[in-house]
Amino acid sequence: MTKTVVILGGSFGGLHVAHALLKKQHKDVKVILVSKNSHFYWNLASVRAIIPGLIKDEDIFKPLESALSRYPSTSYELLIGTATAADFDAKTVDVTVSTDNSRRTLTYDHLVLATGSRCPEPTSPWKASGSYEEVLEHLHQTAKKAKAAKHIVVGGAGGTGVEVAGELAYEWGKTKEIILLSADDKVLGGDVTASAAANELKKLNVSIKYGARVDSTSTNSESGKTEVKLANGEVIATDLYLSTIGVVPNTEYVPAKYLAGKDNYRTVVVDEYLRVKETKDVWACGDVVSKPRAGFFITQKQAVSVAKNIEAALAGKEPAVAKGPPVDIFACAVGRGRGAGRMGSVKLPSFAVWLAKGRTLAIQMVPGYIDGSVA
């Protein structure tokens, strides 16, 4: 009897798991990959793609169908849509299909939650927060506005904020005023790489404002400028405001009893096998998981473990404890020439971070997600 594995999410984690299962060529296993975006999006390069002319769309957007069509058509289905509800007892998932807005209920033997996260600001291009067409439009519009602006404010000094400010300043630091707002007294949340990243930004003429928590933004009807109001009451008028403040896990479809957190930051609670707690056949990886933190390398390792544990379950074997990266790696590109990072608590030279990440933003890894060699 055919077993059905439903994978929700067609990005780093979900596509990785799909490849891992499909490459085994099980005759009695069908994979259904559900993705709201018809394309795989290498969003790690979005921070540089907002500089016109540097990155081609086709280098960071790849049709998911091209990744799956190498497998027998009977072994998979690609469904473009959004999961809206899940019943882990009935083993069903409701999906709103993008093409006609109809509802389809999928029944599964194993379910993978890999729906990632989105930016609070829906027009931000840092995540695939909508359809392929919408994300592409957001990216192009941001690039157009960045080129025209003389004054740019980047809200949020986490990894994305530092990288966005660095890319903008590397290209226009001598001709545009670029301000990075940090709610804390250090960038990167006070990580050990904070001072190194701040120094690299200053070399590119980025002005960093500390203790600058964004309260709200509005458009001045007379000047057309965006007014960024800070929690301390200060107002900064700018031609372009780019928010990189936080992400929202895409977990609204998951029953509340399986989630932890508060407000709109609710993540899935998993056990040491990356199995959703209190279930036997629901697994999770990536930004939807409650631990240890969101990160590309962590998602990669989690996807490997989820795929292996589903394979074990299909064979009637017990799961293995999920393994993370051997050491916590953090790398932050600062423009196209420098960077800041660490391996564990050991700081890495700027040149090493540039070589490993900043030089290409790892775009060379994209083909592996399409031809399946990543898994």
From TrEMBL:
Gene Ontology CC entries for this record: cytoplasm
Protein name: FAD/NAD(P)-binding domain-containing protein
Keyword Metal-binding in annotation: no
Entry keywords, A to Z: FAD, Flavoprotein, Oxidoreductase
Family: Belongs to the FAD-dependent oxidoreductase family.
All residue ranges annotated as the FAD/NAD(P)-binding domain in the record: 4-292
Keyword Nucleotide-binding: no
A Pfam family recorded for this sequence: Pyr_redox_2
SUPFAM superfamilies named among the record's database cross-references: FAD/NAD(P)-binding domain
Gene Ontology MF: a single term: flavin adenine dinucleotide binding
Organism: Canariomyces notabilis
InterPro entries for the chain: FAD/NAD-bd_sf, FAD/NAD-binding_dom
